[in-house]
Fold these 3 entries.
Entry 1:
Amino acid sequence: MPNKPLTAQRKGSSHILLTFIHPYANKLVVAAVLLFLSTATLGVYVYQSLQPVDPHSEQVVEVNIPEGASGREIASILKEQQLIRNEDIFYFFVRMQGGVNFKAGRHHLSPSMSMPDIVAHLESQTYAESELVTIPEGLTVEQVAERLAEAGLVDQHRFLKLINHGDFSDITFVRDIPEKEDRPYRLEGFLFPETYHIPQGADEEEIIRIMLREFERRYQDWKELAEDSPYHFYDIVILASLIEREAAVDSERRTIAGVLHNRLEAGMKLQVDATVQYALGEHVERVLYEHLEIDHPYNTYQHEGLPPGPIANPGLDSILAALKPEKHQFKYYVLKNDGTREHYFAETYKEHLENIRKARAQQ
């Protein structure tokens, strides 16, 4: 037998024809097949990398492109903001276009945009003209409206009217806000605290939408936790707003969250002073006994359970505290009077009374 591999065989009527190929030809065939497969795989990978990170996303992300930023630096910024799938593919895509003249400044982009769309946007559009405004944690909708009006960005009356009657149903979580008659503002709790660059000429509806989009973007950070929570999405925001107004020290957020959870589970009234402040519609230096007796759906001294809606716009830390409360047996807390803005916590009412006496002695 010849010492060569048999690769094909065809039978005839009187003889057998054997076809032989040199061993090196086999290697070339294998190499060609591997090259084809790797090229095809690479092509699929590149194609996927050009697609949107999340084609169904409704987020709007503000991206700042520094003056003189290189293609590599811009790719890194976009990847960090989760707007592209792969930095290298972005860089080589731009190179394949013969280079792109990106515009420095602020850009509004979305994970629903494909890589070619993002490149085209960065080349043609920018939000260079804008007004900087900071919305701190814990403001009410009315306080947000007042701050924006003072900056000359909104008409306060129109802003508050849109909060209740504007159509923002295209934003996913807004559709999950339950209809209620006993709350003053439908979107209370959802104007996310942040420093915003408001585009020049933006009207009240656009500004509200920018803030709601920011809430939606941050919602991705705790959405899975919310799905595992025994509380409805809206109730989580209500709890977070109470925590935001009650916790002046970051380290106490989860502790206070634990107290609220414990009281709810025990069927106790929450008795949160901040809800009384909200019911009064104005800030008072001290909540008095006469304030605790007002008949109002937000007065948690008079009504069991959560108030009808959030009492402020909470930040992410308070939302996470509502979702991951500290596990303990405390059911009471009272503010210390030592200037630390911290609280004394107690498991029993007797201990709570002792803490009240201790706090009063510090005055």
Note: The radius of gyration is 31 Å.
Entry 2:
Amino acid sequence: MACLAQRDPAAALARGHHAYIHEQRYSPKPRPLEVTRVLTACLDRLLGDTGVTEILSHPFARLHIITARARGIAASDRRLVLSTSIALAAAANLVQRRSLRWQFARTIFHNSEDSPFVALRDLPTTHRALNADNLRDALIASGAIPLLVEGVRIAGYPAEVHWDGGVTDYHLDLDFGPGDGLVLYPHFYPHVVPGWFDKSLPWRRARAHNFDRALLIAPSAAFVAALPGKKIPDRRDFFAFPAVERERRWQAVLDASAEMGEELRALITSGRIADVVRPWASARQ
């Protein structure tokens, strides 16, 4: 979305892809400080020299960035304390998703006066304006996975520690608000998992009413089966393959995804898109 809100989205995405695939190199056992440094460099490549200004002044795209603000011991920079906090959050989440509020609060940074998320009540939610000082920090925080990346102190809020927004909103099972238009939902799975701790909980899936007017686009099982290793790339690939092989596999997935994009373009321009749209079964369970 940060690419889409730049003047040349395709160029921004290409910069981000190249950095993420080919410039993400680590020592055998990287510490969070090293991972943070490398990923920050990747983000800087994606943004380029003028990305922040372009995002904030875009004529129609309004960027929203979700982070998870740490509460209590979840803000600790001591690995053992943070691990304990994560374990407690995971255990409490088994009982009720709302229990995440004991450790985390959702924060939405946005450059929109009319955010569609103002009515969220499931978790403590704070709305803050994006500006030239905090946009880069917020983007870094939005991918700061606890224990793998350092927590982020966002400009203007030095007393707070922010983590990956996926902790609270992994696949965005949110109320997108009323309206007659469609919500385009590009995804990599045919289902939506509400929070990070819900990944292994099959009974925690998206609520149907949040997706009444959403169009989810996801790769088919056949597409994934044709990828290297028959799976979507993930961070375990850094440990499973030498750097050259990981890059080769990730680049192959990127090339296959471009073909999928061209197929979508053909469906839209030909008017045949309605012929392939199907009810989203997992949203109705």
Note: The chain has a mean pLDDT of 93.
Entry 3:
Amino acid sequence: MKEPLVSIICLSYNHERFIREAIHSVVNQSYKNIEIVVVDDASIDESKSVIQELVAEFPSIQFIPIEKNVGNCKAFNLGFALSKGDFIIDFATDDIMMPDRIEKQITLFQSLPQDVGVVFTDATYVNEEGIFLRQHYEYLFRKKLLNEVPQGDIYIKVLSRYFVASPTMMVRRTVLETLEGYDENLAYEDFDFWVRSARLFKYSFLNESLTKIRRAGNSMSTGWYKLGDKQLHSTYLVCRKAQKLNKTAEENESLITRVRYEIRQSVFSKNVIEAKLFFELLSELTKPNWIDRTLFGIRHLPIPLRRIRNLYHIIRFS
């Protein structure tokens, strides 16, 4: 059987310190039928110089230097348009692939039916120095955020909770072609991709840690829900998409769970505009209860809601 071509779209933004190790982890894969497309999204450090050195070392690497920052979604789409692989990996150049990652994911894919569009795995989180922080699923299980890893038809699950480590995904090209790539109107791609792809394709889980994901800190809440967070507004836009995609009462209940969660995060992070938008969406999906109304009502009160939220997350998720 001919080995399918796998395209690794490597997204770089100010990864000067990490990009050499990241690209070497791709080049040194045990699976050899790969193409590497590196897209630098107008880095302001020396990332481009390092990439040019890597291209000189490995001439098969295709390099797209972007002069003006366009964001992750558009940067990926530019790389995807250049790629030719039957399978695609979206790979950040501060992460590290285990040497047999692609081989193992392709082997699993070749045993699966065509309606399975995504294979994802466990992951290991490391800090900037590469020191171990946690295992993705061990952490979710330990914190009682997940009881088992959903797979197959996961649409209902992805509406209500986070569980896929997106850097571990390998995706059939047909999935991204059907979705017409990432939505460039959004500040981030994960949630939107999960919702839209899971509506049409199944997911399969490979229970091995095949990617090291770099994190700046040891807290899962690092960078989440800052004041004026553009990602939060993107989450709202994706919830609106899900509202249109939903077909059953059970799916709506799952979306209601997500929206209630986002209302809490919006209120306690003082993102009052998004709090209002999510509350309006909740009111369309169901009748808000007294907890919903009380929570929404305190959004303008002069109390340190953000401090309360940050303290809660330190206690709950550290």
Note: The chain is about 45% helix and 20% strand.
